[in-house]
Every structure is written in structure tokens, then in C-alpha cells.
Amino acid sequence: MKNLRIIIALTCLVFGYEGISQGVAGSVEYIKELTSEWNGERFKDGRPKVSDALLKRMKNIQIEEAWGYLRRKGYNNQYEGEWEIIHPDSVMTGRVVTAQYMPLRPDYQKLIKLKGAKENRDTIGGSNSWPIQQLVPGDVYVADGYGRIIDGTLIGSNLGNAIYTNSKNGVIFDGGVRDVAGLLDIEGFNGWHKGADPSYLQEEMLTAINVPIRIGRATVLPGDVVLANRHGTVFIPSYLASELVLSSEIVGLRDLFGFQRLREKKYTAGQIDTRWTDEINADFENWLKSYPDSKLPMTRKELNDYMASRKN
Hints:
GO biological process, one term: methylation
Pfam family, one: RraA-like
Structural class: alpha/beta
InterPro entries: RraA/RraA-like, RraA/RraA-like_sf
CATH architecture of the largest domain: 3-Layer(bba) Sandwich
Radius of gyration: 23 Å
Distance between the termini: 62 Å
CATH topology of the largest domain: Glucose Oxidase, domain 1
Strand content: 15-25%
Protein name: Dimethylmenaquinone methyltransferase
Number of strands: 12
Largest sheet: 10 strands, mixed
GO molecular function, one term: methyltransferase activity
CATH superfamily of the largest domain: Ribonuclease E inhibitor RraA/RraA-like
Number of helices: 12
Number of domains: 2
């Protein structure tokens, strides 16, 4: 009985220590657990390092194509729409750094400040600058501000400049921003947000960085890849990003082929707009062989490997 009490006490001590050691940011080990299906290179913070080349290709993917691919893989909650956009005509892709905000609670805020100090974060200014310190080129700062706009403005032009300096990218906020005129002046910066207001951030606090968050109806993990344009935002698990891009590029080529054959009146709209016959599929494959390599969105090897895999 005495030994049992000792074991229980030691267990409580271990779990208590683990709880105390939890920081503001998700640990490298935790992020690796969240993204365990990724097999490639990683950043120092543990996030998957999806290549810049793939992010560039993803800018040409339609939201509907990305959404459809994810649905087929069982990811039904990765899209959020109804945004205000700083530059609506631009497309943004990047690797996600997440941040979670909550309504202010003094005792919890005090603990967060203490944890931030142990992580060498700036405790003099506002904690909404902390995620910005972690950004590297190609990142997108994605924050759950629980839809708050008045007194929920997560950034203005000062922090916007800092974000762009570190990431060369922009933000996606389920919350508000202020000083939109100043944000518009930051060349290359873009932002998706729920509204603008002149108020400052107050009665709201940062609680965590690089942990799972909710953005509207989407679940977002650190290291996801985001595709954002005027039609909404899609958050893509890193391990699916490469296949999603290639699959969507093939869909784009099928569309080009279909449009051309319709203009030539070789097939009817009904034939193109339904499951293709073996004859049309064979015609498409021959069309691909003569399609110029310089116009392909992927390499010829990627295309051939993909088409071969579809036959197996």
C-alpha cells in the first residue's frame, strides 16, 4: 500500500511538471506529432518545409479544385469564406504559423506573460507581436480571433510592416484589423480578415502559438499550406500539398483539352461534361504528348508518372 502511494505521488509529480513546462508555443515534438505524415524537411520549430517552388505553383490552383481534392481525401472542414481582403485581385500561398486569441482573463494573461518571458519574448509591448517573431519567408500568420472586430484588431500598419519584413507574405485573421490605409501602402503585403475598425486591441489576449486552431469552419494546424484568393481560403495538410497541386494541374489540362475539342465540335458538351469514354481518354493522352513542355505547369516526368499511376 505504501509503494502504491509512492507511485501515485510520483505520477502526479511527473504530470504536474509536464503541465508547468507547457510554453506559449507548441514544442517541436508536438508539431512533429501533429504533422507526422509529412516525410520531408522541417523548420527549426518543427513545421514541415513545403518548397517555395510548390507554393508558387499552388497560386494557379482554383479554390474549387483544392476543395474538391481535399473532400475526396476525407478533409471536409478546410475551407472558410466571407472575407474582407486588402488586395482582392492577388493570390497568396504560404506555410501556416498559427496563433490563438481569447477574451481577456487576468490570471491567465499573467501566466502567459510569465511563459513568454521564459521564451525570451518581448513582455513590454503587446503579445500580439509574438507570433511575428517566429515568421520566416514564405510563412502566413493565421490567427483565431474568434471573429471579434471592435477591440479585436490584431494588427495595424506597424505590425503589418513587421509581418511583411519577416515573411514577405501576409495574414489571415478570423478577427479585425486597423489602419487599413497604412496596410494598403505595404507593397507585397496582403490580408484576409473579418472586418476593420479604428479601435485598438483590448480585452483580448494571445494564448498560444503553433497549436491547432479554428478559422471559421476550418480546422488549421501549424505547418498547413494555405491557398487564399478572392474566393476564400483553403488550408491544406502539408503531406497532401504536392499531390493536390499535381492533381489540380491535371484537371486544368483536362479543361483546356475539353474546351479545345468543344470549339472544334469534335465532341458534344454532354460528352465532355460527364465521365469520359475510352475514346476521349485516349484522345486526351495523345493531346498531352503533343502539348509543349514549356507550357506544362509540371515537369514532363511528373506528368508521365501521374498518368502511368492512374492506369495501375
